[in-house]
Design brief:
It is a single chain. The radius of gyration is 20 Å and the shape is globular. The strands form 5 sheets. Strands 3, 5, 6, 9, 13, 16, 17 and 18 form an 8-stranded antiparallel sheet that branches. A hairpin with a 5-residue loop joins strand 5 and strand 6. About 2% of the residues have low confidence. With 265 residues, it is mainly β. Helix content is 0%, strand content 50%. Among the domains are: 92 residues, Sandwich (Immunoglobulin-like); 93 residues, Immunoglobulin-like. The termini are far apart.
Length: 265
């Protein structure tokens, strides 16, 4: 007999075949397990200036990162500093290989500036072979995947859940719609957490101008002098949705998710 552990949200049912969105935990579904996290900072004095962090996973692994620029806003990978307009001078990129996380910052012809990065490495290896190792504790709550052992797991990927690793704590989500009329337009959502939270966002109409296709932010388009940027930034109180353009018109939608994990930036 297969046993399932479910924890439902308030006023929702864990019985039968519930909507996964009605559950806080379901032992049949894998969870993000944060293997490691940390912060790195430095002065951006060249183009690029690279900040490296050894992840010690032995294989490229799933990760996420956030950068705080000198203007005080936190940006997602491939985003520019919020105060920037076209042409963009300051922006950053995040990549990984089998050894390091690589954070490349650009300054163009602007002055040197200080940047900080908060990074998270998850248990899922990109090449689908198990990566990393698990450090066992005497006391832990574990839920193993089918045909895997919760007593002697070989990697974190053997487990649906373990109290030995941190995970993401969902807070709230929604969609911001921005009406654009050939010039910059903005939207704001207040989270009022008092710190920079873990967040992610998407935007439509940047893939073949299809309203039903969403891509991860940021969105970018440039052709024959026309440009459009769709960016999302965080402060300690709000998320800011910036659509910067010199030509576009229409409505763009930004679904977003905010977690209670404190970036500590």
């Amino acid at each position: 007999m297969t046993y399932v552990v479910r924890v439902a949200k308030q006023n929702k049912s864990a019985l039968g075949t519930p909507n996964p969105n009605d559950l806080i935990f379901d032992s049949t579904l894998n969870t993000f397990k944060i293997i490691k996290s940390g912060t790195v900072s430095g002065t951006v004095s060249g183009t690029p200036t690279t900040l490296n962090v050894a992840h010690n996973m032995g294989t490229p692994s799933a990760f996420y990162a956030f950068a705080k620029f000198s203007d005080g806003y936190v940006a997602l990978p491939d985003e520019m500093e919020r105060s920037q307009n076209s042409p963009v001078q300051r922006y950053w990129r995040a990549t990984t290989d089998s050894t390091n996380l690589n954070f490349d910052f650009y300054k163009g012809t602007s002055a040197n500036y200080t940047a900080s990065v908060k990074y998270y490495v998850f248990e899922a290896p990109i090449n689908a072979s198990a990566g990393g190792s698990i450090t066992t504790n005497e006391y832990a709550i574990r839920v193993a995947k089918p045909e895997k052992s919760a007593l002697n797991p070989s990697t974190p990927d053997d487990l649906i859940f373990t109290s030995e690793y941190n995970t993401l704590k969902y807070y709230t989500s929604g969609t911001v719609s921005i009406v654009v009329s050939g010039t910059n337009a903005y939207g704001t959502v207040n989270h009022n957490l008092g710190y920079y939270p873990y967040f992610t966002a998407y935007v439509n109409r940047f893939v073949f101008a299809n309203e039903n296709l969403y891509a991860t932010c940021p969105g970018f388009f440039s052709d024959f002098g026309f440009y459009s940027y769709a960016n999302v930034y965080a402060s300690t109180a709000s998320l800011f949705f910036d659509f910067k353009t010199n030509s576009a018109s229409g409505t763009w939608k930004f679904p977003y998710f905010i977690f209670k994990n404190n970036l500590g930036l």
